[in-house]
Structures are given as C-alpha cells and as structure tokens.
Amino acid sequence: LRMWATKESFAEPENNGNFDLRRLRPRDKEALQEAYDAAFGTPTAARLMHRGPYFGVWKRNRLISVAGTHFIAPDIGLTAIGNVWTRPRFRGKGLATLVVGAVTRELLADYEVVVLSVREDNAAAKAAYERVGYRTHGRFWQTRGRWKG
Fold first, then answer.
1. Beta bridge partners of 71
2. In whole angstroms, what is the distance from residue 143 CA to residue 145 CA?
3. How far apart are CA 65 and CA 63, in angstroms?
4. Residue 70: how many CB atoms within 10 A of its CB?
5. Which of 18, 45, 73, 101 has an alpha carbon 20 to 30 Å from 53's alpha carbon atom?
C-alpha cells in the first residue's frame, strides 16, 4: 500500500522520555549499517543517510529501531520515508511509530506530503503509521526486474 501524511493529518507521537530517540548523524553510520545488515541483508542501506533525516531509538549504544528518508523530490513537494525497521525482540512497543513520527515531522517542516510504502499484509506496521497520521492512498505492485539490452 502507498500511504501518505500531510501537516493536517500528522499526529506527533509521545515518547514520554521512555526511549532514547535521536536523529542519526554521520558518526552513526556503522550502527545503522549493522542494523540494516540484520534487517535486510544489504550493504547499501547506510549510504542513503545523505538523502534526508534518519531517526533511531537506541538501547545501550545499540540501534534497535530506525526510519529514514527514501527520497526527496523538491520540484513536486513530495518526500518518502523508507527502510523502517525494529529489531524483532523490541517490536510491539511503539518504536516504529516514534521513528516514523520523527522523520515525518522533519520532512513536513519543508514539504507538503510525505509518503511511505507498506505491505498490505503487515497490519502492525500499517497501524503504527496510522497512529502518526498516515492514510492509505492506494495500492501498487512492486516487482524485481532486469534490464536487457
């Protein structure tokens, strides 16, 4: 599903000081890469930090939940969040809501719309995004392809 949030729909999640939520900086690249290696098994995710804000929740100097900017298209005022992940043993505690909320807040300061994609069968993620103010815009299909030529 493609979901979207606007300044009008956005609902700031409450942290209540229970979690160490902070914006990731270049010095956090190794921690981000370790998290994304565990999540996606890909060596490329951490290099995307330059695209826009990334936020994470930390526990004992370990990144346990993260969300980042997938792309920014300033000419049309559109941005997307991507690479949202929480370590399995920390799921169900509202961490995805916190990190997505933090990235969304930052992006909505400069852009009108923030979108993200979620699998239709991932009810927990969809609910987390809805708590922040995301609404379903529509369905789309994503497939792997290979260029021939």
1. 80
2. 6
3. 6
4. 19
5. 18
The SS3 assignment for 16 reads coil
Q: How many CB atoms lie within 10 A of CB 122?
A: 12
CA dist., res. 56 & res. 66, Å (int): 4
Which residue type, as a one-letter code, is found at position 92?
G
Which residue, 125, 16, 128, 19, is CA-closest to 64?
Answer: 19
- Please tell me whether the overall predicted TM-score, pTM, comes out greater than 0.85 for this model: yes
pLDDT tens for the chain, 149 residues: list them: 999 999 999 999 998 778 999 999 989 989 998 998 888 776 656 677 888 999 999 999 899 999 999 999 999 989 999 989 999 999 999 999 999 999 999 999 999 999 999 999 999 999 999 999 999 998 877 677 777 76
Q: How many secondary structure helices (H) and strands (E) does the chain include?
A: 3, 7
Residue labelled with tokens 């994470």: 56
> Maximum distance among all alpha carbons in the chain?
55
Per-residue CA distances from 5 to 37, 68, 78 (Å): 28, 15, 10
Let me know: does 108 contact 8? Beta carbons within 8 Å.
no
CA dihedral 126, 54, 146, 77 (to 10 degrees): 80
